[in-house]
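Record format v2
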Amino acid sequence: MDQNYVDLEADSVDKLLTQAYEVAYDKGWTDGLPIIPPTAESVQRFIAASGRAGDELIGIITPRKGRATVEAIAINSIMAGCRPEYMPVIIAAVDGLTDPTFPLEVMQLSTNAITPFLLINGPVRKILDINSGTGCLGPGWRANATIGRAIRLILLNIGGALPGIYSRSSFSSPLRYSYICGENEEENPWTPFHVDHGFKREDSTVTVFRAANFSNISGGEGVGPDEILRQIASHMPPMWGGGGFVLLLGLNHAESLHAAGLTKQDIQQKLWELARSPTSNYSKAFVNRERSVGRADADTVWRSKSPDENYIVVAGGPGPQNVYIAAGLPQIRLIKGIDAAK
Amino acid sequence: MIAADNFVNFGRRVAATQGFPYLVIAETPNPVRQLDAAALHVRAEGMIDTVVAGLTLGPESLEHRFKDVAKQQIHPDGVVRSEIPI
């Protein structure tokens, strides 16, 4: 990313900040919201907090084939309102997003509104105050709001996925402002997501998913595990772009299902069996396509091809609520140097 | 390159990063995934002249033909951020 320095002068702080916002907006560097103007000093502070060299290349982002160096990531993170200590999380996420197997290119250009969803695990959640409990996907927590926003600014400014020009998402999505939460490991009766994938509990990780939606599933409380899972599955329709899902299991249902003796694998299996709909509900072309990729039989179309594509995470606060995210293709990265960044 | 019309700018931008700003791009209306073989055949016939041009025109002819088109697709008028060099 080529840096363009702009000299701004004003006789008051509010005029200076407004000027910075207007200049950044006019140059197309923002998501539309106000930004914190990066300075040479603040960029150096963020680079130092990363524990890496400013010119270290983390990845290449299409369509501009922009170089996501630590310095370029720092600039966008400052603009997003991040604190310097968030840098290791953002760098790890960019590393995951630019993995050759992750479909970032299609996410940058598609008429669909697919966007990265970031799941944070481990001690970093407490260190940086990344919300994993009540309200974890909504406003009110700086780390959640600004780390997710930094990712979007990186995709826009380094990747050059200009909305309406190269990014052709017909509607785009509010999820493209920030889509991130921690796992509520403290109230998770099972092992955390990252431990299930070979990391130690004391490791901090970020997992990036290709995500297509947000759906809050309400109700089903107190009627037993079968009914809870049936209620959840009824909100998971087969859809174009299929694949699996992330189920953010709320605390009430996590506790009920665990108390009933179900493991995460049991839940994955049960939801795989239940999240199916009659072929008669769908167009023939859709059914044929789903059959060709192993997500339909003679009578039903399935949400996912196998139970392994159904990722179970515990998050959020008390209440009979869960969140279903049509998501898959996770890339998990260890967050390095978080202690040094504090 | 063959591209659905929605994605021609994206394709041109990516091609330019690889040193081919004047790449010949055959366009067809988006979407294409629902088309059966017969409909795809019709679409292919509609693009064949462009494909032949891409295979037969020399570099100077390509530059002459696509210079203005490529400029607009890579750096669209009024989009300041697109001016950041590739």
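Chain B has three helices and two strands.
The helical segments of chain B are 8-17, 37-56, 59-74.
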